[in-house]
Design goal:
Layout lengths: L8 H13 L1 H20 L4 H24 L6 H12 L1 H17 L1
Keywords: Membrane, Transmembrane, Transmembrane helix
Pfam family, one: Phage_holin_3_1
Protein name: Phage holin, lambda family
Length: 107
């Protein structure tokens, strides 16, 4: 094994190829985190709220990307999903999910 694998050009090529392949998802998650942090700052939240809301919004966005693919929507819709999740926040998205799940259970 080489002493410094980070110096291997093949490693960097693989990393760049992975980033290019997953660019829409990463951009959507980053947008979601940024909007969520700015929304909490604007609302006067604490630093802890900013970090947690940003992380949760980013993770929710990453979990929505496969749903977009399943629905047959283009990858570019991931950016819209990220912006919407960041703007609405985790609590609002969870409320929508709870209502949809309750409708499915009721009938």
């Amino acid at each position: 094994m080489p002493n410094m694998p980070e110096k291997d050009p093949g490693l960097w090529a693989a990393i760049i190829a992975w980033l290019v392949m997953h660019q829409p998802q990463l951009y959507a998650a980053g947008l979601s985190v940024g909007i969520a942090v700015l929304r909490v700052m604007y609302g006067g939240g604490t630093r802890r709220q900013m970090y947690l809301e940003g992380a949760l919004c980013g993770l929710v966005t990453l979990s929505l990307v496969p749903l977009l693919e399943w629905l047959g929507l283009p990858q570019s819709m991931a950016t819209f999903a990220g912006g919407a999740v960041g703007f609405l926040g985790v609590e609002k998205v969870r409320g929508y999910y709870d209502r949809a799940a309750a409708k499915r259970v009721e009938g």
